[in-house]
Structures are given as C-alpha cells and as structure tokens.
Design a protein that fits this description.
By secondary structure, the protein is mainly α. The chain is built from six helices and three strands. It is globular and about 30 Å long.
Amino acid sequence: MSKQEAPVPLSVMVGSGENFEAKGKTYTVKPIPLKCVAEFMADNLSIGSQLFNIANKEASEKVNKWLNGYCFDEKGEKMTLEKAMDDEWDIVDLKNFFHKLCDLSG
C-alpha cells in the first residue's frame, strides 16, 4: 500500500457499510455489489447536483431505487425518497448519500 492510499475500513470489506449524517440522524450506506455496477452506471444519475435527479420523474425513480437498496435509517429500515423528504433531507444530503455510495463502491 502506498503512502497516499488509505486503508479500507473493515465495514467496507465485510459489506456492513458506513454511516453518514443528515439532519441530525444517522444513516448507513452499504457498498454496491460488483454485479450492480453496470446498472448503476446505466442509470446515468448525477452524483453532483441533485436538482436534475429530483426534477426529472424517471431520474427520481432511479434515485429512489438506489436509496431503497443501499441506504438504511437508524432502525435498519430501507430508505426511500419519500422517507428522505419526510426526514427533511435537502439536496446536499442527497448528494452526500451518492458521494458516500460512490466512495464506498469505487
């Protein structure tokens, strides 16, 4: 391992995920399995600005799919876009989810 590479956390190696915080609540994001990478790439979602993902119905359905599959609330329940809205996430929180998902998986 070079000096520039950070060690991979055990939580990532075993697939248990990593936490991130949004609006004072903690959520767990799990890494994307190899078999789903092509599907994630094909969905062509913005991982930067979330305005485009939310404003477009087809894209927002894809956002919901990835939240539901890889983001879990404090009780371990799957997240949905509707639940994220109920928890008062903003577009920065959604961007942070996608960044965490890509960081873990990439």
